[in-house]
Amino acid sequence: MPTYEATPRFTADHHRLTRAGLRIKGIRSARGVFELTWDGNGRATWSYGPQIVSGEQHVVWRRIGTHDILTGP
To answer: Angle at the Cα of 33 (from 55 to 64), degrees rounded to 5?
Structure first.
């Protein structure tokens, strides 16, 4: 089971959302960052971080909200 962490900004953004229907793709302008999209304008960005548990991926949730989250880090 992968481990994960969420940035404080992600956690704050997450509490303001509704969600349905997921898609995933890489973000061209930010190497190593991926985008999860849903419900037309819902977005979340994430990347892999250093392993916490040997042999398991570690996901860092970066931002969550609408398309507007893609304008910042």
So the answer is: 105
Q: What single string gives the DSSP state of each residue in 2-71?
A: -EEEE-HHHHHHHTT-----EEEEE-TTSTTEEEEEETTTEEEEEEEE--SSTTS-EEEEEEEESGGGGG
Indicate the residue type of 37: T
Question: What whole-number distance in Å separates Cα of residue 64 and Cα of residue 35?
Answer: 9
φ, ψ at 25 (rounded to 5°): -155, 160
pLDDT digits (tens, 9 = 90+) for 12-69: 888 877 676 667 788 887 889 998 888 778 888 899 999 999 988 899 998 888 877 7
Question: What pTM, to 2 d.p., does this model score?
Answer: 0.64
